[in-house]
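hiii so um. not sure if this is the right channel but i have a protein structure encoded as tokens and i wanna go backwards to a sequence. like what aa goes where. can anyone help
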């Protein structure tokens, strides 16, 4: 895979069970944009350890066997669809390794998995995933993998803002690759329909995928969680920005992700400098 692709999707894999589905999401997005996929895995070393005496190449050769096997298997399953390759990284800090990689390899989007565990309430996805959402300088998808074997229908709760638009774009890419249909759902609390052009505008972004639209009144979180059970994937945009990690996602996407038993993808559009511009600046200084 060369450096000429106009759109590159990186996917971070660790768990061999979840790696194929995360990579399928990356492939769907890259395929729709005529892009390519970079599968990343991080070989974590201790900050102070004998590993510091070796180069990354030596560490990968001597200690990266299992992770390299995972990368090779994932790449092999996707290479006939889009250009794809794997890259094993060495670092004591997973977040820094991924942040550096999306800049170095000119990635437009990074996909990571979310494995829910019992954690303090201030942590949304888990410490590493939260830091990635906050720090990585590209678009980010956080995917909680559900039991679906295929994709026939996708739920997209409609909201305003760039994160929601990104959610619609991701839904379109996945739907096109799987011949699925999309349900655009707008939920309002008090019956007052704001941004009345919102659904038509979002629908225009989805063409030519089959869609159906709906507006409901009620509690947003409860309505979306209930409806999510009727679909294979639910895709939501982050609803807040701020310094605190929980504000980067928003309460509704967080709650839906935690409570839904099907696959949920939360999208965060990059804010600030893009990785391609970042690299250009670095190379011209």
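sure thing!! here u go:
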């Amino acid at each position: 895979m060369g450096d000429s692709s106009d759109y590159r999707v990186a996917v971070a894999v660790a768990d061999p069970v979840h790696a194929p589905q995360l990579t399928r999401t990356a492939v769907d997005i890259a395929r729709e944009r005529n892009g390519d996929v970079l599968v990343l895995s991080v070989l974590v070393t201790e900050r102070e350890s004998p590993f510091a005496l070796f180069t990354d190449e030596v560490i990968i050769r001597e200690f990266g066997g299992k992770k390299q096997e995972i990368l090779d298997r994932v790449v092999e399953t996707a290479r006939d669809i889009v250009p794809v390759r794997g890259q094993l990284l060495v670092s004591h800090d997973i977040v820094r390794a991924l942040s550096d990689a999306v800049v170095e390899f000119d990635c437009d989007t990074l996909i990571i998995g979310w494995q829910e565990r019992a954690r303090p309430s201030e942590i949304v996805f888990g410490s590493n995933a939260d830091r990635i959402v906050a720090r990585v300088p590209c678009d980010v998808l956080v995917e909680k993998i559900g039991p679906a074997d295929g994709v026939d229908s996708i739920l997209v709760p409609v909201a305003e803002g760039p994160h929601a638009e990104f959610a619609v774009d991701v839904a379109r890419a996945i739907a096109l690759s799987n011949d699925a249909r999309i349900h655009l759902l707008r939920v309002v609390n008090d019956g007052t329909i704001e941004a009345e052009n919102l659904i038509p505008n979002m629908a225009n972004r989805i063409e030519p995928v089959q869609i159906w639209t709906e507006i409901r009144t009620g509690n947003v979180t409860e309505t979306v969680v209930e409806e999510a059970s009727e679909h294979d994937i639910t895709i939501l945009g982050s609803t807040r920005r701020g310094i605190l990690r929980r504000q980067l996602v928003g309460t509704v996407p967080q709650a839906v992700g935690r409570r839904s038993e099907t696959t949920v993808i939360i999208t965060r559009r990059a804010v600030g400098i893009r990785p391609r511009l970042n690299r250009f600046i670095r190379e011209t200084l």
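oh and DSSP finds eleven helices and ten strands in the chain.
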